[in-house]
Amino acid sequence: MLFSTSIASRPILHKCFIIKFSSFLSSSCYTSSAAAVQPFLPTPNFDEYDSKQLASSFKDWFRTREDALLNRIFEILAATATTTKEDDDDLPVSARTSELELSQLGLRLNEMFVLRVLKSGKDVLSCLKFFDWAGRQPGFYHTRATFHAIFKILSKQKLMSVMLDFLESYRMQKMSHRVRFYDTLVAGYAVAGKPGIALKLFGAMRFQGFDLGPFAYHVFLNALVEQSCFDVVEVVLKQIKLRGLENEVTSCIRVKNYCKQNKLSEAVFYLRRLQSKGDVINDHMVGILVDAHCKKNKFKEAHRLMEDFWGLRKFSLGNTYGIWIRNLVQAGKLDGAMDFLQSKKLMEGYVPEVFRYNVLVCRLLRENRLDDVCDLLVEMMEGRISPDKVTMNAAMCFFCKAGMVDVALDLYHSRSDFGLSLNSLAYNYLINTLCGDGSVDEAYRVLLDSIKQGYFPGKRTTCILADALCREGKLDKMKELVLMSLELNIMQSEALSVKFISALCKARRVEDGYCIHGQLKRHDKVSYRYTYLDLIHGFNRANRRDMSSRLLIEMQENGHRPTRKMYRAVICCICTMVNPENCFFKLLEMQLSRQEPACKLFNFFIDGAGHAKRPDLAREVFEMMARNGIEHNSDTKIFMMQSYLKGERIADALNFYNDLCKKSKKGNPGRKLNNTMVVGLSKANRPDLALEVLRDLREKGLLPSLESYEELVRSFCTVENYDMVVEVVDDLLKTGRKVSSFIGNTLLLHSVRSRELYQAWVQSGNVTTEAFPSGDFTLGELIGLFSGVYEVNEQLEDLDEVIEQCFPLDNFTYNTLLRRLSMTNRLDSFVELFNKMRKKGYQPDSYTYNIVVQSLCKHGRRNEAMRWVEEIHRMGFELTKHTEQLM
After folding, report:
1. Number of helices (H), then strands (E), in the chain
2. What is the reported pTM?
3. Which is nearest to 327 in space by CA: 289, 378, 379?
4. What's the rounded Cα separation, in Å, for the pair 54 and 36?
5. Cα–Cα distance measured from residue 87 to residue 95, given in angstroms and rounded to the nearest whole number
């Protein structure tokens, strides 16, 4: 491409990624037969890759986790309401249907199968329903292990109230299970975070001559350690020891007990003593100790502990390795985690469990280390590691981040084939990527699906989608999005509504915008102040003057203070009426009834009448202030004078100004008033009168503002009186000021259009040049250069630096310079200047991009020009009529 800054709308695939996946897919058993006919090979163009084959390979990999029976069980459970009634006749129809469907599966219920189902559970409710159903089936009785499994699920989800209700029901009913009654209650209450109740039950059962079994003792002990009941822990440990129930599980819990109390040295000593005595030491004990050290940021000590047990070779340290990797990742030591994984895989054949891989993949994704993510995904596929839901969602996010939205979309559309359920992060990534890729309709369909699944996109994603919908004019879809967010009571709906109302007003659908505004009010959501401004401008364009006034009052009732700009918009709308006087003063009267009469309010009405070119109304308000004893401040006088100037009543403006001069000390009404008069006359295309005022100020020894000189130069250039332009610039330099960017840009712009300015400059012969910084060019020579008097030779490639010798640069300067260079055959210099503009921090605007397209068209590079047109539209800019004609 011509320019160094790429305008591609999505990232380009890395070469290394293509090579990695191509080498894997060419030999992978996951590659489908259809894809195997045309192997996925790297091509010279890295933006080309076989997305269908890549998606197919990942689908085959994802299917390896499929368990049809378990999926069917949870499908049935998810389709019905929960119930725990024992009498099937009392069950709802939907529940009886699920009971029947589960029974028809012919499940062989035993402890191992129930534990497998509970472990694979997708949600707590489904697990509870299956646990209840299984417990009511003839021939099956829940065991300590199944009870403990459901307790762990409830505890992990922090559903303590549900768990306590469950235990209380069990305790009161004393259902005839083959599991020991007190064992279940003590273990259950301990896991539920109620050690007091568990201890009370333990005392009761001991009083009755019963005792806990080994399993319940250790569950009870572990729960006490987890809840930091250290005194009770010692008591229970003694009971276990007295009954001869100590084993390696007890030792494990002892290590955890030391670590929970931050007694790491005691824990290490205990483990060493076990080792010296020849007692059993296992991976779990070492893992607990390593984890505790890492939590205290003692990574060196943790690593030394692992080294001490590497040489024993009596047991595998797979669990410890996984804990070490997780802690490294959490501490941000990603390189260390990756190196450790690869070294252990190479030397010991260590293969982490899928959830360990997930931790690494997710963190690497967050750090945008896509090459490393690619390595791990390939490694998992080669190692035949069955992916889980987290893996699949991470892969979706990876493809989105890598710019391969087509692969991500293919997997998304096939998600039901391998049981993929996207999480909120994957939905956000997919929607964001589709919006960036220009597939807004597809992004919206994904959004609707995410809402059905219970996920509403995040604030940033919603804003991106809303911007895309508004930009492409898909306002009906935007309306659905806003209404859905309101119905779901999503907090960011107000921000959505603001964007939508603004878009509707711009599309001249202000009535629809007002309806959305009404929906917000019905949901007790107050619109933002600038939303009212959008609505007011929208109704103004629709000539709905009644609505403009109503909205102004409504926004005040909702606690917003209208700005001068809002008052101006409403008053301008009122003044388009045939006889606006009654409405104008009625609005003023209503405003005065809502607040104390103040100069600021009257100023707003004078300013509004002035912008509506009704100086007569402004004058009446001006006099009303005097009648009510409200003193005119400097702003009042400025607004009144501007009203005359905007209404083209120049004589009245001069008379008003002269009166102020006579009433003021030494004939000076104030710096602001003086400058306002010069600027106002210049903007009214009366630079001759403005120059007289400026000369009068100079004779009085007063210094006009820089804006006064700027507007005078602009006005004289507009009427092509270049002799006066030279005089004004000369007078500016005599004040000791330098030429501003505005004046410099104006001079260069008119220099490009004709040589008359340069001729006037030369003929004057009295323009001061000493005020400019020393350099190769004076301002006059620069004007000659842009007028075409001088050639753009080899020494003038850095024209922006030449201009900077005379006045500060800004975006307009660069646009003018680019336009001047586009008239030459030096397209390379044009390109260099554009890139330099970006490097210096100047952001190209709509005019810049139009100049680029025009230049490319003039030099016959139409294909490149078309790519830039796409970029212009993507950034929300429009083509000028001149650009469209060239295309």
Report:
1. 51, 0
2. 0.61
3. 289
4. 11
5. 12
